[in-house]
Amino acid sequence: MLLPLLAAVALLLFSLDADPLVRRDASISAASIAQARLLFSRNDPRGLRPGAQRTAQVPVALIDEAFNHFATRTLRGRGAFVLVDQAADFRLSVPVPAVSGRYLNLRVAFRERGGQLHLASAALGSLPIPPAFAEWLLVSAIDLGGAGEQWQLARQVFRHLAFDPARGVVAVSYVWDPALSDRARSLAFTAAASSHAEAAQRTLAGLLAKYPANAKVPLSEILAPLLAAPSGERLQRRRAALLVLAAYVSEKNLAALLPQARQWPHPQQLRLTLLGRYDSAQHFGVSAALAAWAGEPAANAIGVYKEIDDSRHGSGFSFADLAADRAGTRFGELVVADSPRLEQALRGPLRDADLVPALAGLPEYLPEAEFRRRYGNADNAAYRRLSTDIEDRLAALPLYR
User: What does the alpha-carbon distance between residue 201 and residue 266 come to, in Å, rounded to a whole number?
Assistant: First the structure.
């Protein structure tokens, strides 16, 4: 047993490269969020009869960004997915902390045969490796990223795959068993996570019970006591608290995620505000939860997507809302990092102005046509100037320096 392990370690060391195979940032595009939302709305398995089969057309670009997000968040690397001819090419670059300036570059090609994926070739750096060893590396990477059980669940659901390079999609046929929904929920929310969420819900209900009905309450007044937690369980409890807060400010029923929440106390419905604005508290709270649970790239992308969608169907694109989104994202990151700056802020008197910058001068209520005329897209110089202005305002706050 020891000899194969030593051989594997030696192979990994000799295959390290000075440059990463995948060079990209960790960002997720707002377009991918829109694609994911549309894909789910068209293929929501909850509307299927047990045992019914459906085929989803999954964009390659969406798989690519999802794989890169997984590589970034769980392995601190970068990933890419492309269709080359009739093969699906997964590429992964992971920095090796023990060997400064070196990267583990893995490239694996799958071909579709009989509706199933078959590993066709693999390489570590420039070194070809046996498919069986490559499969072991992939499974190890999935397990290392904490997604082993989710991977097994996905294999139960998905029955048939087909590559369509011309259309840039992967056709995925799946069969839904309602029992799998409960299992997926239990993987996402452990018994401990559910217990922490219940405690946070009870705390929020108690905090808001002190105010008269329909009162406007600054978010800063309840945030510190809501996030109070012992150091040993601080991250888990605060993530749960942010989830509860996000559900509350967005007026969503937490029971959709955790059915047992139907039995928990329901906080009275007040108007939590930031700088006197309900919408700012909503954007801040939702983005903080997204950053704590899914990471900064996902939180940023969803924030931009929401504003673009508002420009088409809602109140219009708002850079003020985007600033509240970014503040919430930064706050959620501080929670995950267990930042000393956050601890100091939560110990002292906390004001709204400590959480979000002044919003004066940031354009709002822009219909899509006006937004496109003035700012184009995220690559436009005018858009970038306002984005930089928002980041500068955030950087001026002691909490986000």
Answer: 8
Q: Has residue 177 got a pLDDT over 90?
A: no
Q: Give the C-alpha separation, 201 to 245, whole Å.
A: 8
Token readout for 274 is 């930031």
pLDDT for 2 beyond 60: no
pLDDT digits (tens, 9 = 90+) for 42-89: 877 667 777 777 888 999 999 999 999 989 988 889 999 999 878 899
- In b/e form, how buried is each residue of 31-56, taking b as 16+ CB within 10 angstroms? bbbebbeebeeebebeebeeeeeeeb
- Beta bridge mates, 17: 103
DSSP 3-state of 217: strand
Q: Would you call 277 helix, strand, or coil by DSSP?
A: strand
DSSP states of 363-398: ---B-HHHHHHHH-STTSHHHHHHHHHHHHHHHTSG
**Where is pLDDT greater, at 1 or 113?**
113
SS3 261: helix
Instruction: Choose among 208, 219, 211: nearest CA to 346.
Output: 219
- pLDDT class for 149, splitting at 50, 70, 90? low
Contacts of residue 325, defined as CB under 8 A and 6 or more positions apart, other chains included, come to: 283, 284, 286, 287, 299, 300, 303, 304, 306, 307
pLDDT value for 308: 74
Q: Which of 92, 140, 88 is nearest to 119 (CA)?
A: 88
